[in-house]
Specification:
The chain is mainly β. It folds into 2 domains: 83 residues, Immunoglobulin-like, CATH 2.60.40; 209 residues, no CATH class. It is built from 3 helices and 18 strands. The strands form 3 sheets. Strands 8, 9, 10, 11, 12, 13, 14, 15, 16, 17 and 18 form an 11-stranded antiparallel beta sheet that branches. Strand 15 and strand 16 form a beta hairpin. The protein is flat. The protein starts with a helix and ends in a 6-residue tail after the last helix.
Amino acid sequence: MSRMLAVLVLLLPLLMFACGPSLGDDDDSSASDDDDSVAGDDDDSTPADDDDDDSTPADDDDSTSAALVEIVSVYPESGATEVFVGTSIVVDFSGPTQATPSLSGPGDVAVPFATSWVSTTRMVVTPAESLDYSTTYDASVTWTDGTDDMEFTTSDVGSVPVNQDLTGTTYAWNIGSGNVISPEGDELLLGAAGDFVLLTGVTAQSANNLGLIGGLADTSGAVLAQDLCIPTAELSEAEGFVGDDDDSAGDDDDSAGDDDDSAGDDDDSAAGDLPPGNWNDPAFVAGPANLLQRVPNPLTGAAMELTLYDATFGGTFVASSAGSPPGSIAGGSFSAYVDLRDAAMGFSCVQIAQFAAGIDCIACAHDPAAQECVQLWVIDVTAELVPGVTMVPRSQETIDADSANCP
């Protein structure tokens, strides 16, 4: 997250100067290109290109015909194996377009999904349910200028329950290690490896629930530890997940195949549905909750606090040897919102978005009238067991009274 602030600082000169007049050029940003009045010459700095083919002198004809929009990347890649069953499909286009995706499994059986656009050029396809283990899927996309298809095969990660009490274990999430869906093209907003590490600790466990708390890691020592000077957040109150029904008699909180015939039931056939609660061994979900973190201000060097609003986690514990706690969490997902006003840079989100590709300013959940937030959404994150560390809840009152650890 410190990298996020550094990127924003680097944008400030662009904010001040990028809107000024160009220096002697026509349609590009080069100050040393050919801007004379000779018709038919090449007026930008790209050699051997096909511009300036009309009779207008000193123009740049690269923009006279719109280029076809193409797919520039797809995640997972075509032919990928060992894909996590909870993944999303991300398609990047070379320009704004309209597109219709499809997804099917064995026997050409359609897989239901939701489609979202995190920017004008990035489409995300999220299956309504977890995919099947060790299964090949076909995906296709039809857009204004073409059609493309690909296939991928899921792994068996998550198919083996851990069958043990995880109370007291702590896992470190290196958020920057995952595949960044949002903001598009600005992975540095999440920091480089090691810059942005969150901890989750298991405080209790029952058949359908994990008690979870989240906090910031202290990375200053030789080994990871809990930052005792940042409040922890309760993560166990997960809500809004497909297949659960725990609020009233006779209803069913999803839209698939329900008949509402008895209290608290779920009448669809989705094997991957979580039961009421947030834990279906070995998969879990957590949040939403607000998480605080402390980072240095890139302008002054002084410590400042940022809030990750409505942070949610999810993932699958990877079973290890009998009697040992799982060594990792695979297929993790993380999402939250950052209010760019918290960075106190003096520029609005809209101003920053003009010069930082892929930043989409949205309404803040804590302040719906303000279009000042950016969504952070990362999938396929890994979390590693932190041996010997058991997280403890820390409130601001506890921190204020702990002058020994938090002077």
